[in-house]
TrEMBL record:
Its EC number is 3.1.6.1. PROSITE patterns: SULFATASE_2. Keywords: Calcium, Hydrolase, Metal-binding, Signal. Belongs to the sulfatase family. It comes from the Bacteria. This is Arylsulfatase. It is an enzyme of class 3 (hydrolase). Residues 21-346 form the Sulfatase N-terminal domain. Pfam families: Sulfatase. Its cofactor is Ca(2+). One of its GO terms (molecular function) is arylsulfatase activity.
Length: 470
């Protein structure tokens, strides 16, 4: 049923003669418990599980935002979404009668921003992008914002004019069924094959398991049988066969990519990083969707809570990462830019605007600690959300500020990972201290905040005027 991760050969004693290849794998809407090695009781992910066994599994990894485009921008630039003013998914949604008016945010990744692809290209890397981009402008604003404009030598998003995951491909004059993840994996492997003589950077941004929830038929049938075989007293946390099939296709793709490295004899000199762009989608418009579950975390994509931003993350760097290691240090997608710069030997003199840190010290020694706080800023409304908010994680504590009523909630993640017990009343001094840190950060990044809406209408506050879908 699955493609199993091949055995990875042992590197020769001599040091590599060229910089390490880099592959960044980014899942879409994959929640914290969305892999076997992160606790799923249904999803089967042998390749990613094996990768975690051979490398580092991050238990406190975060996306820079609770939705996709801002997180992707943080990866490309090493800057927080708040600093970029790119704080919602492109093109976002508009609630003209909500209590607060959202800021006039930036609906594209500006061509003036220097991306990791541009920097690696200058360093001699061949750069490739496969899959979802979701950083381009709309209409005429698309110019200068596509992957090929942002430093990528090669870019393939999806078959032209296709939608969803269940595709038709022409082969020998016949139309045959195909699955998007498999098609994208073909392109990714072709890029690796064509680039093996030079150092390369591959950014493989999967669409799965984002909606629409469409699994490959053979995998759906297999997981449905697995679900049906459970007795009534064996309730599964994850119980959607289509979603499980999408996660399985992701894992199979990872296996194929790693096998491609092995067949080209370059696996020993390739760093592979795996993250998700935000948490799993669990509800929309106040209704729980039976797609996935992020428990024990609270809520999911679009929300202010841990379920929206804590994600699975794995790193494998042959002869650098120690097998079977677990890193509990909080890390965030903004760190990926600086990590890739460090791996490739790119010197970026941009410390004043640095919103992340290199993870290389952690890859070498998971006992390393970073004396820093993590921040989030989402001044928007979302179908899966709680209204505009900002948040800080400082040590074990997480404080969330909600803009509609200016309230703050404080949680001790060590004792209450589900964020059920608000400590703001019991710990007023700590609450005030973290509020001060959060406000200082918002000021330093020039964050845009929501304002009073003169058109506020309680009867229509949840009405969404939709922008054109991408």
């Amino acid at each position: 049923m699955f493609t199993v991760l091949p055995s990875l050969s042992i590197a020769s004693e001599s040091a590599p003669q060229r910089p390490a290849n880099i592959i960044l794998l980014l899942a879409d809407d994959l929640g914290w418990t969305g892999l076997g090695c992160f606790g799923s009781d249904l999803y089967e992910t042998p390749n990613l599980d094996a990768m975690a066994q051979r490398g580092v599994k991050f238990t406190n990894a975060y996306s820079a935002c609770t939705v996709c485009s801002p997180t992707r921008a943080s990866i490309m630039t090493g800057k927080s979404p708040a600093r970029l003013h790119l704080t919602d998914f492109i093109a976002g949604q508009n609630r003209p009668f909500a209590k607060l008016k959202i800021p006039d945010w930036t609906k594209r990744l500006s061509g003036h921003e220097v991306t990791i692809a541009e920097l690696l290209k200058q360093k001699g890397y061949r750069t490739g992008h496969v899959g979802k981009w979701h950083l381009s402008g709309q209409g005429t604003e698309i110019n200068g914002t596509r992957p090929i404009d942002q430093g990528f030598d090669y870019s393939y998003e999806r078959p032209q004019d296709s939608k969803g995951y269940l595709l038709k491909e022409q082969s020998d004059g016949e139309s045959k069924p195909a699955y998007l993840t498999d098609v994208l994996t073909d392109r990714a492997c072709e890029f690796i094959d064509a680039s093996k003589e030079d150092p390369f950077f591959l950014y493989f941004a999967y669409n799965v398991p984002h909606t629409p929830i469409q699994g490959r038929k053979d995998l759906v049938n297999s997981f449905q049988k697995k679900i049906d075989s459970k007795s009534t007293d064996q309730k599964l946390l994850h119980d959607n066969a289509h979603y499980a099939a999408m996660v399985a296709s992701l894992d199979q793709s990872v296996g194929r990519v790693l096998a491609c490295l092995e067949s080209n004899a370059i696996s020993d000199n390739t760093v592979v990083l795996f993250f998700s762009d935000n948490g799993g989608l669990t509800q929309r418009n106040g209704k729980h969707d039976r797609f996935t579950e992020n428990l024990p975390l609270r809520r999911g994509k679009g929300s202010a809570y841990e379920g929206g931003v804590r994600v699975p993350a794995i790193a494998y760097w042959p002869n650098v990462t120690t097998p079977q290691t677990v890193c509990d240090e909080p890390v965030i997608t903004t760190d990926l830019f600086w990590t890739l710069c460090d791996i490739a030997g790119v010197d970026v003199d941009d410390t004043k605007l640095r919103d992340g840190q290199t993870l290389v010290p952690l890859l070498k020694n998971v006992a390393e600690t970073y004396d820093r706080d993590l921040f989030w800023h989402y001044p928007h409304y979302h179908a899966g959300g709680d209204g505009p908010y900002s948040a800080i994680r400082s040590g074990n504590y997480r404080l969330i500020k909600f803009y509609e009523d200016q309230s703050c909630r404080l949680y001790d993640l060590d004792q209450d990972i589900a964020e059920q017990v608000d400590l703001s009343g019991k710990r007023p001094k700590l609450c005030s201290k973290l509020q001060g840190k959060l406000e200082a950060w918002l000021q330093s990044t020039g964050a845009q905040v929501p304002t009073e809406n003169s058109r506020y209408d309680p009867a229509r506050e949840t009405l969404v005027v939709r922008s054109k879908k991408r």
